[in-house]
Amino acid sequence: MSCSGWEVPVRRPRRSSALRAGNAIAQLLNKPPRFLTVRARVLAPEAAPPVLAMCAGYDEQRWRAQALVEHLCQWIPEWALRYGELNDRLDSATMMAMSRRAALKVYTSKNFEGRGEFGEIMLHAAIRQEFDTQPAISKIFFKDRANDYVKGFDCVHVSANDQGGLDLWLGEAKFYVRRGQAIAAVAKDLGNHLTRDFLREEFALVLDKVDGAFPYADQLRDLISSNRPLDEIFTSVRIPILLAYDSKTIRDHREVSTEFEQAMKDDAIAASKGLAEKIEDKKLPRDVSIELILLPIEDKKQLTKLLDTELRNWQGRAN
Predict the structure, then answer these.
(1) 42-67 pLDDT per residue, tens
(2) CB within 8 A of 70, min separation 6: which ones?
(3) In which element (H, E) is residue 268 found?
(4) What's the CA gap between 281 and 271, in Å, rounded?
(5) 302-305: which pairs have CB atoms within 8 A and are 24 or more residues apart?
(6) C-alpha dist (Å) from residue 150 to 5, 142, 218
(7) What count of Cα atoms within 13 Å lies in the side-chain half-sphere of residue 84?
(8) DSSP SS3 for 57
(9) pTM attached to this predicted model
């Protein structure tokens, strides 16, 4: 499908082989147990960009809001802390302290409803689970204070590619009430963030912040070096886009069924089409690969409150 000279790149979803360091580490960071389930995965020609739709499922005919909250919070330490911090020798006492330190980095403001950190954690969890990426740096390190807002891509991950090098994952996350609003917002961000000047600035910030203890720090620095042409970098860039939004499909069902999965697929195709239309005139780089990820929810307002309450518990603050 052509979008004003820019062809929507389509890659078959692939599970990256485990990253290999000199000491043959099979998995750099241990992941929480799998929780979200992919209920629809649609490729070209049905969907371009390709899309997968994930679901928290139902317990006793109720959507699993609280279980999703608890699962997402399990990802906070590796989302918020440096690689070196996560690989320090830990015991039960230091683990608790580390978790609290990580939680305090998310935000401490009482004005939580419009913040973007929860969407970023959803994105982090989704691509770690489905694409075996490794977080290279958390955007939280671009903050001067805990409650600051950070512009730019919402995640910077890497994965091994088939050529023995690295793929660079620059993610966008939108957590909105309406899917259409989320699509419009992410399309605007893509148009702004994939410009030459913005990318060079973003790469410079990453180069300054990447943890020297990360086994692939040198490879990442080489990949995004200012000496490397952007056209060459683009061949290794993948853009995961996570959209979380209030979903009629989630509200209208009480269990996972064939009908439910078909509705999820229909939603996935519609979202992919909607995004393709919105980015048609953005003149995005030709070689950049987009991976669209949907996480439909029952009620954004309720889920945000539950997430804030759980975060405050982790921080040791009164509700």
Answers:
(1) 998 899 999 999 999 999 999 999 99
(2) 310
(3) helix 258-278
(4) 17
(5) 302/65, 303/65, 303/68, 303/69, 304/112, 304/113, 304/118, 304/175
(6) 32, 7, 25
(7) 6
(8) coil
(9) 0.85
